[in-house]
Amino acid sequence: MAGKTTTRADLADAVHREMGISRNESAGFVERILEEISGALENGETVKISSFGTFSVRDKKLRMGRNPKTGEEVPITPRRVVAFRASHVLKDNINAALVRDSATAAE
Amino acid sequence: MIKSELVQKLADENPNLFHRDIERIVSIVFQEIENALARGERVELRGFGAFSVKRRPARIGRNPRSGEPVHIAEKYAPFFKAGKELRDRLNRRAPAAS
């Protein structure tokens, strides 16, 4: 599997290439999109991006954990975590591409 | 919040651009994340989170009703892990007393 990592700069570059707007403005849009999603999640809202997936916030209750090194019991405080559920379209597209790749690699 | 509300918000901030252009910009960003995952790449957006793809190898499953073994093909599952900044933002306010 490719070892490359895609970053904000790559996303901004795609916007710049396809829309013909400046790199700077493109980067601004990427930032605003991520910020809007973060802000909504922070307010406890679910964020649904059709044909991509859904980000939601889950409430975790207080539970007891254990320090694996010392075996000591420590409380894990109640917290909110982000959950992402990929849409079927996203799962199907990823599988179509990667299963095909691994089939050709196996030949 | 749904995608169209996100688009509307950005459109309101950018009266110089057409609504449909904002729509395209938002689509390009998610499409680009999808393209990277479809190449087996990791997408790392500092502060927000990281998308990756996990491989689930082919295995022999069992039809729970008949007990009959069935072949389950290899598959890939997209995965998201929230970044530190986002995790912290969600927990900045004191959680409701439980």
Automatic annotation (TrEMBL), chain A:
<dbReference type="GO" id="GO:0003677">
    <property type="term" value="F:DNA binding"/>
</dbReference>
<keyword id="KW-0238">DNA-binding</keyword>
<dbReference type="InterPro" id="IPR000119">
    <property type="entry name" value="Hist_DNA-bd"/>
</dbReference>
<comment type="function">
    <text>This protein is one of the two subunits of integration host factor, a specific DNA-binding protein that functions in genetic recombination as well as in transcriptional and translational control.</text>
</comment>
<dbReference type="GO" id="GO:0030527">
    <property type="term" value="F:structural constituent of chromatin"/>
</dbReference>
<comment type="subunit">
    <text>Heterodimer of an alpha and a beta chain.</text>
</comment>
<protein>
    <recommendedName>
        <fullName>Integration host factor subunit alpha</fullName>
    </recommendedName>
</protein>
<keyword id="KW-0233">DNA recombination</keyword>
<dbReference type="InterPro" id="IPR020816">
    <property type="entry name" value="Histone-like_DNA-bd_CS"/>
</dbReference>
<keyword id="KW-0805">Transcription regulation</keyword>
<dbReference type="GO" id="GO:0005829">
    <property type="term" value="C:cytosol"/>
</dbReference>
<dbReference type="Pfam" id="PF00216">
    <property type="entry name" value="Bac_DNA_binding"/>
</dbReference>
<dbReference type="GO" id="GO:0006310">
    <property type="term" value="P:DNA recombination"/>
</dbReference>
<dbReference type="InterPro" id="IPR010992">
    <property type="entry name" value="IHF-like_DNA-bd_dom_sf"/>
</dbReference>
<dbReference type="GO" id="GO:0009893">
    <property type="term" value="P:positive regulation of metabolic process"/>
</dbReference>
<keyword id="KW-0804">Transcription</keyword>
<dbReference type="GO" id="GO:0006417">
    <property type="term" value="P:regulation of translation"/>
</dbReference>
<dbReference type="InterPro" id="IPR005684">
    <property type="entry name" value="IHF_alpha"/>
</dbReference>
<comment type="similarity">
    <text>Belongs to the bacterial histone-like protein family.</text>
</comment>
<keyword id="KW-0810">Translation regulation</keyword>
<dbReference type="GO" id="GO:0006355">
    <property type="term" value="P:regulation of DNA-templated transcription"/>
</dbReference>
Automatic annotation (TrEMBL), chain B:
<comment type="subunit">
    <text>Heterodimer of an alpha and a beta chain.</text>
</comment>
<comment type="function">
    <text>This protein is one of the two subunits of integration host factor, a specific DNA-binding protein that functions in genetic recombination as well as in transcriptional and translational control.</text>
</comment>
<dbReference type="InterPro" id="IPR010992">
    <property type="entry name" value="IHF-like_DNA-bd_dom_sf"/>
</dbReference>
<dbReference type="InterPro" id="IPR000119">
    <property type="entry name" value="Hist_DNA-bd"/>
</dbReference>
<keyword id="KW-0810">Translation regulation</keyword>
<dbReference type="Pfam" id="PF00216">
    <property type="entry name" value="Bac_DNA_binding"/>
</dbReference>
<keyword id="KW-0804">Transcription</keyword>
<dbReference type="GO" id="GO:0005829">
    <property type="term" value="C:cytosol"/>
</dbReference>
<dbReference type="GO" id="GO:0005694">
    <property type="term" value="C:chromosome"/>
</dbReference>
<keyword id="KW-0238">DNA-binding</keyword>
<comment type="similarity">
    <text>Belongs to the bacterial histone-like protein family.</text>
</comment>
<dbReference type="InterPro" id="IPR005685">
    <property type="entry name" value="IHF_beta"/>
</dbReference>
<dbReference type="GO" id="GO:0006310">
    <property type="term" value="P:DNA recombination"/>
</dbReference>
<dbReference type="GO" id="GO:0030527">
    <property type="term" value="F:structural constituent of chromatin"/>
</dbReference>
<dbReference type="GO" id="GO:0006355">
    <property type="term" value="P:regulation of DNA-templated transcription"/>
</dbReference>
<keyword id="KW-0805">Transcription regulation</keyword>
<protein>
    <recommendedName>
        <fullName>Integration host factor subunit beta</fullName>
    </recommendedName>
</protein>
<dbReference type="GO" id="GO:0003677">
    <property type="term" value="F:DNA binding"/>
</dbReference>
<dbReference type="GO" id="GO:0006417">
    <property type="term" value="P:regulation of translation"/>
</dbReference>
<keyword id="KW-0233">DNA recombination</keyword>
